[in-house]
Amino acid sequence: MTKYPGAGEYLPNTDDLAEVRAAAAHCHGCDLYRDATQTVFGAGSPHASTVLIGEQPGNDEDLDGHPFVGPAGHLLDRALDDIGIDRATLYLTNAVKHFRFEQRGKRRIHQQPRRTEIVACAPWLTTEIDLVAPELVICLGAIATQAVLGPKAKVTELRGRTTEAEHYRVGATVHPSSVLRAPDRTQAYREFVDDLTRLFEAG
């Protein structure tokens, strides 16, 4: 298993989130930076009471430089709108900050990040959460859930409910991209919205 140096050596000694974001742009803590267009750091309110965490940037996010701007992000926006949550009041980020993909012709096909890459990137995520200091963290999908709660955490067991962490509550649901892949998107979307409703109410 490849051992990466990790993001720790790139972290600046600051409590300014903007400075941390600028430093992350130069992170070579794992090999994903070599093929990705850019680091995709978190975005949103720096004082948000709720942080949403996804897996990693996709193709659209890699090109745009912001999290949740592709198809999954549009679905998330729709769900938030349906439950009356203003995205501008949230902080959104990913467990891994670079796009991992396989090139197939002109297309870049999403590849799940490896555990070593999740661990290498963890200092950025930890710092984001520490500086934003939310009351609630919502993990979208297995990668995010395991990044926050450990490699044995399962979305199937935690979905739609929250648990206490040291400084905030943690909730989990599926990643919105899984809704887009579901055989019955209408049902999958309804369940996703129900999860988010329960999580925001519990937080």
TrEMBL record:
Keywords: 4Fe-4S, DNA damage, DNA repair, Hydrolase, Iron, Iron-sulfur, Metal-binding
Gene3D superfamilies from the UniProt entry: Uracil-DNA glycosylase-like domain
Record's signal peptide: none
UniProt xrefs under CDD domains: UDG-F4_TTUDGA_SPO1dp_like
Bilayer-spanning residue ranges: none
SUPFAM superfamilies assigned: Uracil-DNA glycosylase-like (SSF52141)
Domain Uracil-DNA glycosylase-like: 41-197
DNA damage is among the record's keywords: yes
Pfam families, per database record: UDG
Family of this protein: Belongs to the uracil-DNA glycosylase (UDG) superfamily. Type 4 (UDGa) family.
Protein name per the record: Type-4 uracil-DNA glycosylase
